[in-house]
Write a structure and sequence with these properties.
The chain folds into three domains: 39 residues, no CATH class; 89 residues, Helix Hairpins; 76 residues, Efflux pump adaptor protein, beta barrel domain (Elongation Factor Tu (Ef-tu), domain 3, Beta Barrel), CATH 2.40.30. Helix content is 40%, strand content 25%. The longest helix has 41 residues.
Length: 219
Amino acid sequence: MQIGDTVRQGDRLASLDPRLVAQDLEMARSGLVATEADAGRAAAELSEAQARWDRRRKNPEIFSQEDLAESELRVTTARSTVEVAQARVAEQRARVRQLETSVGQTDIRAPFAGRVAERFADPGAQVGPGTPVVRLISGGDLQVRAALPPDDARTLAPGSRVLARIRDLGLDVPGRIARIAPAVDTASQMVFVEIHLEPAPQLAGRLQAGLVVDVRAAT
């Protein structure tokens, strides 16, 4: 996938090495076995502490108050340990399920039709979760965000016809006002508007994101 390539929704943009996901899955499964073992030991300790406490509650007269309090505290502590261990098991199981799903989903596909504006990774590069691979620009409506003096903005309304002068291309492209900010920007003292461009079909391929335009009302 190269910069400038056109893609359709669902086209494959990149593929992840499934071996890396498989390694993560193996590690997650090993971690699950370990956390389940910890949870089992915690449950056994709770059972032992509960039995000790039950024996003392049945015959409180032969045990000191200190011993009774200590036995009760052991039950409370063991119960908390079990809850923490069970939460870790649930978390690790969710991790395993997620990776089992990911093993069969190593293709990164275009969420919408458009063009490749940037490529952030080359074949063989290592990327982590959340790392961008490419940047897509929608192939749908071309839009311009412009800042107008308040007096000029007051003469326009959504749907008003405008002309956008593309400086680098020396072309005038017609468009319509889509939205007008309801207030003046305090920093620039300008009113921001969004414009949908309506280029001729033969010009659409020449218009790219980042071009500088000058906007004026159509006459």
